[in-house]
Design goal:
The complex is a heterodimer of chains A (252) and B (289). Chain A has 252 residues and is of the alpha/beta class. Chain A has ten helices and ten strands. The relative contact order of chain A is 0.19. Chain B is 76% helix and 0% strand. In chain B, helix 8 runs antiparallel to helix 11. The chains are: A alpha/beta (252), B mainly alpha (289). At the A-B interface, helix 2 and helix 6 of A face helix 7 and helix 8 of B.
Amino acid sequence: MGVGIEVINLNAWYGTNHSLQDINLNIPGNHATALIGPSGCGKSTFVRCLNRMHETNPIARVTGTVRIGDLDIYQDCKPVEIRRRVGMVFQRPNPFPTMSIYDNVAAGLKLNGYSNHRALDEIVEKSLKNSALWDEVKDDLKKKSGASLSGGQQQRLCIARALAVDPEVLLMDEPASALDPVSTSKIEDLIFQLKSQYTIVIVTHNMQQAARVAEKTGFFLNGRMVEFDSTHKIFTNPSDKRTEDYITGRFG
Amino acid sequence: MKVEINRLRSILREQTDRLVTGLAVLATVLVVAPLVAIFVYLVFKGASSLNLAFFTQIPKPVGEVGGGMANAIVGSGILLGIASMIGIPMGIGGGIFLAEFGRGTKLADAVRFTADVLNGVPSIVMGIAIYALIVVPQGHFSAFAGGVALGIMMIPTVCRTTEEMLLMVPHAVREAALALGVPNWRSVLAITVKTASPGIITGCMLAFARVAGETAPLIFTALGNTYWSTNLNHEIAALPLQIWIYAQSPYDDWHRLAWAGALVLIILIVTAVSLVRYVTSRGVLKGAS
């Protein structure tokens, strides 16, 4: 089940660049939350702080508190533990090129030492069904490489890979920006189905996409969160002038 | 008028295209020609002396006709086996350190510099160094000392190609593994190294082929042997050494055997490299890049 995320006074730096400043928000569990804003506004950095991927960059630094469910992710646990509970899907599909479709989905479990083969078979099938890819790949699960699929299929494979480790939260960093319209709509349908089971945070440049899939939307600008409200309110009656300027296309 | 100029331009473009394509073909021929020439010449000179005895008998004393290089073929196999056991793990380990764990550290810079210098050390110097470090203290020449000399010569090539190949693995692939909660060391071994493995194997084969033909480092270490020996503590025969000794001799019969030995050496190297490539490529999946 998806859990809520509570962010208190989050600040992040890359070197001397203060890329996130005093972020406070509550992301509701079992809903989809969209983050919008112009390029370089910090929304990608923000989601990377939610699974501590930010720290894989040696010059990066974070202060503040992030609570996922009951867990304070910067105090109570190691980065590898939180990343198993918070899955991530990247902008460009990044399947493991040397692995079969099956091994791609099973990778997270296998590399963490899980080796019950019958259970793995079930998890792989369930994850691929959840990511709406099963029917397209079920005949050559172990024969074909993950890299042989089309871009849209690869992205759904990456979603299946993230789901297989049974996370509570799914972070998606512009998951459809490298895909064609048909693949994009498949991903959006998927987000719609998945949000009943997972807490989804999706970064997007496409405002229609935010409006279609998310209940809540946050607007980021220059490393600060300008406004966070229901998607309907953000797109019809924003309280901040800058939000209104952005969504009506006056800048960004 | 304008139409004329356009026509001329298009003709010029086509001719330039042909010229550049021609130059590329010429360059290819120039690169391949020496290889083909050497091989054809070796077959021409050596094939007539190849017979069963060459592969089953040891060298005969001067004056007796016939004999073979069976001991040298086996000896080369043993020497290269020892060399690979030393050079490949150390080289790959060093390459992984340079590309993954030591990036940006002073130690990595030192290791990289050392590897490059080691790569430039003349092979005869490597022979003398191992002579001083192993042969003199032990008091005798040995297959082991020869294998160590060749193994150390393999390290820099394996190390630097491993580093280059690992750095070519896209950042996105590493991130994908880390985002699944896989610890960094495991992600490096199971994902990054595996993704780069075809290139790493090529590097190992290059190093292997290079030391397979080395003579100089063996002169002071393995020494050579005209009798059967598979004992790691005794001097051992090796194909390049045997070829060197035979080619220098004044006897026509030995010259012919030297040519045959050179041909066998080339064929064995090509076979070994092709075999490794075949075996390691069998597990590759459809569409894997």
